[in-house]
Specification:
Elements: E1 2-6, E2 9-13, H1 17-25, E3 27-31, H2 35-47, E4 52-56, H3 59-69, E5 75-79, H4 87-96, E6 107-111, H5 116-124, E7 129-132, H6 137-151
Helix pairs in contact: 2-6
């Protein structure tokens, strides 16, 4: 059981067979400048049999992938701190660019910066979910499922 603080509500999350089916159907774009962290995320996602995992080593490469494959990506996992273009600026660009194939794609930010001001800044930039580093594979799965359910009104 995991508890997620969202605004003033604490929500209880329990893994279900529907969560497993959802994870198996997903195509995720992982934007992370650390190859080690990308590998950790990819390994965690593979353990849940995620259909497709696309990697980008920075936000600029992530934007290019999103432009070319946006309709085929279900969720973005996004690092906050990256050179050239950070996660906050990336999210703002995605949310403003009406020409993108999927400007409303769910975005989960993964960051070691978890103070309230940083989380609020992420929300204001259009981030749909937030996951603190370090995290377990189950934390990652539950945050993805929670974010998708919340974004689609099922949560």
């Amino acid at each position: 059981r995991r508890y997620f603080l969202t605004g003033r509500l604490i929500l209880l999350s329990m893994s279900t067979p529907q969560d497993a089916k959802l994870m198996e159907s997903l195509s995720l774009l992982v934007i992370e400048d650390s190859s080690f962290v990308r590998k950790v995320i990819k390994t965690a996602l593979a353990s849940f049999h995620v259909r497709q995992i696309i990697e980008a080593e920075d936000a600029v490469a992530g934007l290019e992938i999103l432009w070319n494959m946006g309709d085929n990506i279900d969720v973005i996992l996004l690092d906050r701190e990256m050179p050239v273009l950070d996660g906050i600026e990336f999210a703002k660009l995605v949310r403003r660019d009406k020409g993108l194939p999927n400007m409303n794609i769910p975005i989960v930010m993964i960051s070691g910066h978890v103070d309230r001001a940083k989380v609020l800044e992420a929300q204001n930039a259009g981030i749909d979910g937030f996951l603190a580093k370090p995290f377990s594979p189950n934390d990652l799965k539950e945050r993805i499922v929670f974010t998708l359910n919340n974004k689609t009104g099922q949560g």
